[in-house]
Design brief:
Radius of gyration: 20 Å
Mean pLDDT: 91
Oligomer: single chain
Largest sheet: 4 strands, parallel
Order of helices and strands: EHHEHHEHHEHEHHEHHEHHEHEE
Strand order of the largest sheet: 2-1-3-4
Helix content: 40-55%
Number of helices: 14
CATH class of the largest domain: Alpha Beta
Structural class: alpha/beta
Distance between the termini: 34 Å
CATH architecture of the largest domain: 3-Layer(aba) Sandwich
Number of strands: 10
Strand content: 5-15%
Length: 303
């Protein structure tokens, strides 16, 4: 199966581990991800604050390129990119005159034909079916699934999961043998693009997320957005300084969790690239005859 991939700036810049895990899991499932040729930045998170036409034109060009290259479906791993492409596609489909106007700006004629899916939808559609028989290392631990602001909102446009208490990643974790924790901050904002301009705001918002996850007994936080990962992982020193407390809890991409359960090599999943060391405990699956003697294994990633 071949579908289009829009990596966005983060997957080819600050978050190569996300890209690596997405590709590794897709390959394991026999799914061919073909990057959209000549793609450009989608404009998140600044374009819509500067110019409405620019905020529409940037995603529109990506959609037009995907359509021109024959893709019927595009997977967008970054939640912010997924949000912008989906919202713009919705607006252009709703208003034909606007689509034609934007088409004149980008000098491309297009109909917004390709469907857009996020990484969780890709996993649900192409990876999770029958995965119980393929698991090599059951998760078997408590995980806090963090969706953030942009993966499920606006619900009317995205029509993906519940906006206040989403369950899609939780269900994936359950299928992998893990226990998703019931917690209060799964859709709260981490600070998003303020990571650069206002890191103190990120420290305050992301600190609340980390604290609640830890209080609920989570052993790791699971995300589906490179910005969320960056704020919870890379900004850990700022968070700890603000709260005057140390946190060792790692932050994993949902694709890394799936990949680990499938037994994919840790370096292929990019687990060695995290700022907060990943010492994620898993239990090795034993043959049926030895099921009464499970062996504990800590998946500590070597540099």
């Amino acid at each position: 199966m071949r579908i289009g991939l829009f990596p966005g700036c983060s997957l080819e810049g600050s978050s190569p581990e996300y890209s690596e895990s997405v590709i590794a899991v897709a390959e394991h499932a026999g799914l061919e991800l073909a990057t959209i040729k000549d793609w450009n930045c989608c404009g998140a998170t600044a374009a819509h604050n500067l110019s409405r036409e620019l905020s529409l034109a940037l995603p529109a060009r990506i959609l037009a390129l995907a359509e021109e290259q024959g893709f019927e479906e595009i997977v967008v791993p970054c939640a912010a990119c997924y949000n912008r492409l989906s919202v713009v596609r919705h607006e252009l489909l709703e208003e034909e005159s606007l689509r034609k106007h934007i088409g004149e700006i980008i000098e491309m004629d297009f109909q917004c034909k390709p469907e857009i899916i996020n990484i969780v939808q890709m996993l649900e559609k192409y990876v999770m079916l029958g995965i119980e028989t393929k698991i090599q290392q059951p998760v078997n631990h408590k995980l806090a699934c963090y969706y953030g602001c942009l993966l499920v909102r606006p619900q009317k446009v995205l029509q993906f999961d519940r906006p206040e208490n989403p369950q899609s990643m939780d269900m994936i974790v359950k299928k992998l043998g893990g226990t998703p924790v019931n917690w209060a901050f799964k859709v709260e904002c981490c600070g998003a693009g303020f990571s650069v301009s206002q890191p103190q705001i990120v420290a305050k918002l992301s600190g609340k997320i980390l604290e609640d996850a830890c209080q609920r007994g989570a052993e790791a936080i699971v995300v589906a957005c490179p910005m969320c990962h960056s704020n919870l992982d890379m900004r850990r020193p700022e968070i700890e300084k603000y709260l005057e407390k140390r946190y060792s809890i790692p932050v994993l991409y949902i694709t890394q969790v799936v990949g680990m359960a499938l037994g994919i090599d840790h370096k292929k999943l990019g687990l060695h690239r995290h700022m907060v060391p990943v010492t994620f405990p898993t239990k090795k699956q034993e043959p049926a005859s030895e099921a009464s003697k499970p062996a504990e294994k800590v998946a500590k990633v070597e540099e």
